[in-house]
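Lecture 7 notes. Example A: sequence first, then its structure tokens.
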Amino acid sequence: MLRSAKAVEGSPVKLEGKVTGHPMPDIRWLKNDEEFVPDGKRVKAYANPDGTFGLLFEATEAGDKGAYTAVATSAEGEARCTGQVAIRTRMKEGVDKTLPSFARPMGDVAVDEGQKLRITTPIRGNPVPTFSWTKDGKPIDDDRVHFFSDGELVST
């Protein structure tokens, strides 16, 4: 199954699914039923040993919108699943401009060492605000950390 995703233009987004099989299948991608090969820079494909796989868009563009199909292939056959990527502009048309604000305050988060950490604090404003995350007053810049346009931070 492939989970659909949405983002604000210029923000990262992740399209993720999970596959099973023995042997573990290889994954290739289609976008709107045409072959899609991630560039490995702005759009990265990944596949983990636990069967999770996906596409990570570091900075979305309007042209990223569409139906993405993961094609899982092994010696035993082929399976497909499709998810949508929706991209919206930063400025909401027909809505007054508003200052950035947090929809709810952040709370404390606990996670066992080695597990995925997910921190979410929804952000409001028109145009949709840009934001950054810091730890101990310093910007977070790590390949294991992903930021999403809805205010989510995920560390793997």
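Example B, a different protein, same format:
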Amino acid sequence: MTQHTYGHATDGTPINDQMIENLADEAERGYEPGQLRGHRRGPGRPPLGEAKTVESVRLEPSLRDEVAKRAAAEGTTVSELMRRALRHYIDTAARNTALNWKDVGVAPHPEGARKDMAMVDKKNIHTVPTEDGWANRREGAKRASSTHATKAEAQAAGRAAAMKDGVEHLIHKKDGTIGNRNSYGNDPHPPKG
């Protein structure tokens, strides 16, 4: 009689009719509690603290594809990438007003922003990547206030202008996200003490 194989055990042993019969006989004889090994599940979904709601967002297919590619490149999930992007937007919007999305890659502050958080007189300076190198732009400006071949040159010029005007200097990474920010006066979040 030929043996039928139903798969393999975790150790690689083929599961056949004889193995199933032996296991059934063993189970019928009974087990001592110490012999039983509990089934251990994997880590599962990590907790999100107090998170109790799920929000649905409709994305056009091209944006969904870009988000999925970015998440895969960063080794994370689409959900985690979207949470980080939303946190970044909220954090940025709370500190910066009147940003021009196309110029600096950060969403504008929503209507009804707190007036005490606005930089009323002067606009912050952003050091941003361009096709030809690097540039410094004032928030809301369509044109660069200065262009430079290297990031270091652009940072130095942006820092000098920010110090002169007493505003924040936001230094973007090559991918357009904000990598560093320095305040040279009128700090919306001054240190305590």
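Note on Example B: DSSP finds five helices and seven strands in the chain. Residues 137 and 144 are 5 Å apart (CA to CA).
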